[in-house]
Amino acid sequence: MELSLSSPYVAEYVKAQTALMQVIDPELSVNIIDLGLLYGIDFSDAGKAVVTMTLSTPYCPMGDAIQSGVVNVLKACFPDREVEINLVWEPEWNYDRISESGKAQLGLI
Questions:
Q1: Which residues form the MIP18 family-like domain (predicted)?
Q2: Most buried of 29, 37, 63, 105, CB within 10 angstroms?
Q3: Neighbouring C-beta atoms of residue 7, cutoff 10 Å
Q4: Is residue 108 part of a domain?
């Protein structure tokens, strides 16, 4: 997820991204931000935070746990917003989406 300093929601994006670093993929022991699973968050509706994200595979056995973690940390940060997850498969997740920090945690570099 790229942040734009000109966005009217930059403060919310930074707060959300920081919180979402607490959501760990239980199989890989790396947070979803460093894994590149988060594609974006829409704060344009004052009552919602719509998260667009993916999982490493459509059959990810921990997908429900990861999504629950996303909802839980965002509800804690934004108690006045409903959290909605838009799970997508395009663009398809791949190892290139993993940050340098994530690759280091996985022993890939």
A1: 17-84
A2: 37
A3: 12
A4: no
